[in-house]
User: What shape does this take?
Amino acid sequence: MKRIGLMKYILFTAALTMALLARLAAPASAAPKVVASIKPLHSLVSGVMKGVGEPYLLVKGVASPHTFSLRPSDARELERARVIFWVGEELAPSLERPLEVLPKRAEVVAMAESKGLELLKLRKGGLWEGHDDHHDEKEKGEHHDEDKHAKGKDADHHDEHKETKAKDDHRHDHDKHEKAKDDHHDEKAGGHHGEHRHGVFDVHVWLDPMNARKWVHTITHELEEADPANREKYEANEKRLIARLDALHEELKSTLAPLKGMPYIVFHDAYQYMEKRYGLNAIGSVTLSPETKPGAARLVEIRQKVRDTKSICVFSEPQFQPKLVKVVMEGTGAGTGVLDPLGANIPAGEDAYFTLMRNMAKSLKGCLAGK
Ligand SMILES: [Zn+2]
Assistant: This one.
């Protein structure tokens, strides 16, 4: 009898030990499948997920969220995802529909709607015309032609202009078609969408480290909801990231302080949040919106503005043709540099956001202060 009792005790202890060992050996509860749209956002999500897992990046390389299209492998990752972080349809219109048809279990988080963000209105007037001003662009072009005729400029230019006009017309048809699609879509989505897209606020919110702080908070909150087992890790990472962002902010303040007020031109109107935070003075953009290539008339107008304002620099972006910037700078004596709001050539991961912001500060300083 005593022998049986002992056997039972040994078996019980062995089973208990096994269970304990298995528990210890098991990795932190399996990381949720997470997708992040653009690299700066992916960087902050990677930081919060450190020690738990790696998010999947959608917009890679020199692709621009304004114009990128989803590949089958991306679509598969979205299908499997538990949490999807994107900025919103204002930045990546092509993502909107694929996200709408995802299985219900996927949590889709639009970071442009994060709590406590400091949002800036899209700029209007002067060289900051809104998205659908390329219509005016055409009129301006025609107006410019009259001038040129009046001034009796050379025939070549005339041909060039004819070509641009043909392009404009083609673009015009294309946009009409797009607009029709949008209207149809808005009807379906109950009408609020059009408003968003066509211009209430600037969507490039991540270019202010103080907004990136808010994003880190939203990311942590969403991941804790989806994966409470790793709550401690997420919270520890959040603290660490907030400290890194505060240090970055101090660094940028001192790097950019000497550049306050210096006039320059950017490629597209993406940097308002950084300008506002650090007192920088961008006075216009080469293109009205990344989706549409500026016509010859607009390039001439910008070049004139560069001269008139004695703008020191005209910046290009890796996502778009640098030759447009060359045309604008021609004969103005302005310098140039590269600003990249997305980190096209930076390795993805937690450090990407910090490197991206530092690189832009370096480019601004390099061109504006010639250092
Ligand atoms: Zn943009």
